[in-house]
Protein backbone atom coordinates (compact mmCIF):
# COMPACT_ATOMS: atom_id res chain seq x y z
CA UNK A 1 0.00 0.00 0.00
CA UNK A 2 1.47 3.37 -1.02
CA UNK A 3 1.30 6.69 0.78
CA UNK A 4 -1.11 7.87 -1.91
CA UNK A 5 -3.43 4.90 -1.17
CA UNK A 6 -3.40 5.67 2.55
CA UNK A 7 -3.93 9.37 1.98
CA UNK A 8 -6.95 8.83 -0.24
CA UNK A 9 -5.72 11.18 -2.93
CA UNK A 10 -4.39 14.01 -0.76
CA UNK A 11 -1.90 16.18 -2.64
CA UNK A 12 1.76 16.12 -1.59
CA UNK A 13 3.79 13.84 0.64
CA UNK A 14 3.11 15.43 4.04
CA UNK A 15 -0.38 14.66 5.39
CA UNK A 16 0.11 16.02 8.90
CA UNK A 17 -3.01 17.74 10.26
CA UNK A 18 -3.32 19.78 13.44
CA UNK A 19 -6.87 20.09 14.84
CA UNK A 20 -7.34 22.83 17.43
CA UNK A 21 -10.65 23.07 19.30
CA UNK A 22 -11.65 23.30 22.97
CA UNK A 23 -14.79 21.20 22.40
CA UNK A 24 -13.37 17.75 23.29
CA UNK A 25 -16.21 15.57 21.83
CA UNK A 26 -16.17 17.51 18.54
CA UNK A 27 -12.36 17.36 18.42
CA UNK A 28 -12.36 13.59 18.96
CA UNK A 29 -15.01 12.96 16.27
CA UNK A 30 -13.27 15.19 13.74
CA UNK A 31 -9.87 13.60 14.47
CA UNK A 32 -11.25 10.10 13.82
CA UNK A 33 -12.95 11.25 10.63
CA UNK A 34 -9.82 12.96 9.30
CA UNK A 35 -7.64 9.94 10.14
CA UNK A 36 -10.00 7.75 8.11
CA UNK A 37 -9.47 10.16 5.18
CA UNK A 38 -5.70 9.70 5.27
CA UNK A 39 -4.43 12.47 7.53
CA UNK A 40 -1.83 11.99 10.29
CA UNK A 41 -3.78 13.85 12.99
CA UNK A 42 -2.49 15.70 16.04
CA UNK A 43 -4.85 17.62 18.33
CA UNK A 44 -4.67 20.57 20.69
CA UNK A 45 -7.31 22.06 22.99
CA UNK A 46 -5.76 25.48 23.64
CA UNK A 47 -3.80 28.24 21.93
CA UNK A 48 -0.78 27.52 24.13
CA UNK A 49 -0.78 23.79 23.34
CA UNK A 50 -1.31 24.40 19.61
CA UNK A 51 1.47 27.00 19.33
CA UNK A 52 3.95 24.70 21.09
CA UNK A 53 3.02 21.84 18.71
CA UNK A 54 3.39 24.16 15.70
CA UNK A 55 6.84 25.25 16.88
CA UNK A 56 7.93 21.63 17.35
CA UNK A 57 6.48 20.30 14.09
CA UNK A 58 4.55 22.65 11.77
CA UNK A 59 1.73 20.72 10.01
CA UNK A 60 0.86 20.63 6.31
CA UNK A 61 -2.82 21.14 7.19
CA UNK A 62 -4.60 22.78 10.13
CA UNK A 63 -8.18 23.25 11.31
CA UNK A 64 -8.43 25.88 14.03
CA UNK A 65 -11.42 27.02 16.09
CA UNK A 66 -11.66 30.80 16.26
CA UNK A 67 -12.48 31.06 19.96
CA UNK A 68 -10.55 28.93 22.40
CA UNK A 69 -10.58 28.91 26.20
CA UNK A 70 -7.22 30.68 26.49
CA UNK A 71 -7.34 33.01 23.49
CA UNK A 72 -7.96 33.53 19.82
CA UNK A 73 -7.43 30.89 17.14
CA UNK A 74 -5.96 33.57 14.88
CA UNK A 75 -2.86 33.47 17.12
CA UNK A 76 -2.45 29.81 16.12
CA UNK A 77 -2.89 30.66 12.42
CA UNK A 78 -0.24 33.36 12.75
CA UNK A 79 2.18 30.94 14.48
CA UNK A 80 1.62 28.38 11.72
CA UNK A 81 2.29 30.98 9.02
CA UNK A 82 5.57 31.99 10.72
CA UNK A 83 6.84 28.39 10.76
CA UNK A 84 5.45 27.08 7.48
CA UNK A 85 3.94 29.24 4.73
CA UNK A 86 2.46 26.40 2.65
CA UNK A 87 0.17 25.08 5.43
CA UNK A 88 -3.46 24.88 4.34
CA UNK A 89 -5.42 26.27 7.29
CA UNK A 90 -9.19 26.33 7.79
CA UNK A 91 -10.87 28.40 10.52
CA UNK A 92 -13.97 27.04 12.30
CA UNK A 93 -16.27 29.31 14.23
CA UNK A 94 -19.70 29.56 15.73
CA UNK A 95 -19.40 33.35 15.54
CA UNK A 96 -18.99 34.12 11.87
CA UNK A 97 -18.55 37.71 10.83
CA UNK A 98 -16.88 39.48 7.93
CA UNK A 99 -14.13 41.20 9.95
CA UNK A 100 -12.77 37.98 11.44
CA UNK A 101 -13.07 36.17 8.11
CA UNK A 102 -10.99 38.88 6.41
CA UNK A 103 -8.39 38.77 9.19
CA UNK A 104 -8.20 34.97 8.97
CA UNK A 105 -7.62 35.10 5.22
CA UNK A 106 -4.99 37.83 5.59
CA UNK A 107 -3.16 35.64 8.10
CA UNK A 108 -3.16 32.79 5.59
CA UNK A 109 -6.32 30.76 6.18
CA UNK A 110 -7.69 29.23 2.98
CA UNK A 111 -11.28 28.89 4.20
CA UNK A 112 -13.63 29.90 6.98
CA UNK A 113 -16.39 27.47 8.04
CA UNK A 114 -19.26 28.04 10.43
CA UNK A 115 -19.96 25.48 13.13
CA UNK A 116 -21.41 22.98 13.16
CA UNK A 117 -19.27 21.85 10.22
CA UNK A 118 -19.08 18.15 9.45
CA UNK A 119 -16.00 16.18 8.42
CA UNK A 120 -16.97 16.28 4.74
CA UNK A 121 -17.08 20.11 4.80
CA UNK A 122 -13.70 20.27 6.54
CA UNK A 123 -12.13 17.75 4.15
CA UNK A 124 -13.49 19.62 1.12
CA UNK A 125 -12.13 22.92 2.44
CA UNK A 126 -8.68 21.46 3.13
CA UNK A 127 -8.34 19.77 -0.26
CA UNK A 128 -10.14 22.37 -2.40
CA UNK A 129 -8.03 23.83 -5.22
CA UNK A 130 -7.55 27.57 -4.89
CA UNK A 131 -9.39 28.25 -8.16
CA UNK A 132 -12.59 26.48 -7.17
CA UNK A 133 -15.45 28.31 -5.56
CA UNK A 134 -17.21 26.76 -2.62
CA UNK A 135 -20.82 25.85 -3.22
CA UNK A 136 -23.35 27.56 -0.98
CA UNK A 137 -24.67 25.34 1.81
CA UNK A 138 -27.71 23.26 0.92
CA UNK A 139 -29.35 23.72 4.33
CA UNK A 140 -28.00 26.88 5.98
CA UNK A 141 -28.84 27.45 9.64
CA UNK A 142 -31.84 29.64 10.30
CA UNK A 143 -31.40 32.90 12.18
CA UNK A 144 -33.22 31.33 15.15
CA UNK A 145 -30.78 28.41 15.13
CA UNK A 146 -27.75 30.73 15.00
CA UNK A 147 -29.16 32.70 17.94
CA UNK A 148 -29.82 29.50 19.90
CA UNK A 149 -26.28 28.20 19.19
CA UNK A 150 -24.80 31.49 20.41
CA UNK A 151 -26.86 31.40 23.62
CA UNK A 152 -25.79 27.78 24.26
CA UNK A 153 -22.13 28.66 23.73
CA UNK A 154 -22.28 31.59 26.17
CA UNK A 155 -24.21 29.41 28.64
CA UNK A 156 -21.43 26.80 28.52
CA UNK A 157 -18.73 29.48 28.82
CA UNK A 158 -20.47 30.70 31.99
CA UNK A 159 -20.36 27.14 33.36
CA UNK A 160 -24.15 26.79 32.98
CA UNK A 161 -24.83 29.72 35.31
CA UNK A 162 -28.14 31.24 34.13
CA UNK A 163 -27.72 34.58 35.92
CA UNK A 164 -24.22 35.20 34.55
CA UNK A 165 -25.28 34.11 31.05
CA UNK A 166 -28.29 36.45 31.13
CA UNK A 167 -26.06 39.32 32.24
CA UNK A 168 -23.55 38.69 29.42
CA UNK A 169 -26.31 38.39 26.82
CA UNK A 170 -28.08 41.45 28.19
CA UNK A 171 -31.40 39.66 28.59
CA UNK A 172 -33.77 38.95 31.43
CA UNK A 173 -32.98 35.78 33.38
CA UNK A 174 -36.50 34.36 33.00
CA UNK A 175 -36.42 34.93 29.24
CA UNK A 176 -33.15 33.03 29.08
CA UNK A 177 -34.58 30.19 31.18
CA UNK A 178 -37.51 29.84 28.75
CA UNK A 179 -35.12 29.74 25.77
CA UNK A 180 -32.91 27.13 27.46
CA UNK A 181 -35.93 24.95 28.25
CA UNK A 182 -36.93 24.73 24.58
CA UNK A 183 -35.50 22.43 21.93
CA UNK A 184 -33.08 23.80 19.36
CA UNK A 185 -34.81 25.40 16.36
CA UNK A 186 -34.21 23.89 12.93
UniProtKB/TrEMBL annotation:
Pfam families listed in its UniProt record: Response_reg (PF00072)
Alphabetized GO MF terms: DNA binding
Sequence ranges assigned to domain Response regulatory in this UniProt record: 16-130
Top-level taxon of the source organism: Bacteria
PROSITE patterns: RESPONSE_REGULATORY
GO biological process: phosphorelay signal transduction system
Modified positions (4-aspartylphosphate) in chain numbering: 65
Keyword Transcription regulation attached: yes
Keywords: DNA-binding, Phosphoprotein, Transcription, Transcription regulation, Two-component regulatory system
NCBIfam families: ActR_PrrA_rreg
Name of this chain's protein: ActR/PrrA/RegA family redox response regulator transcription factor
Taxonomic path: Bacteria, Pseudomonadati, Pseudomonadota, Alphaproteobacteria, Hyphomicrobiales
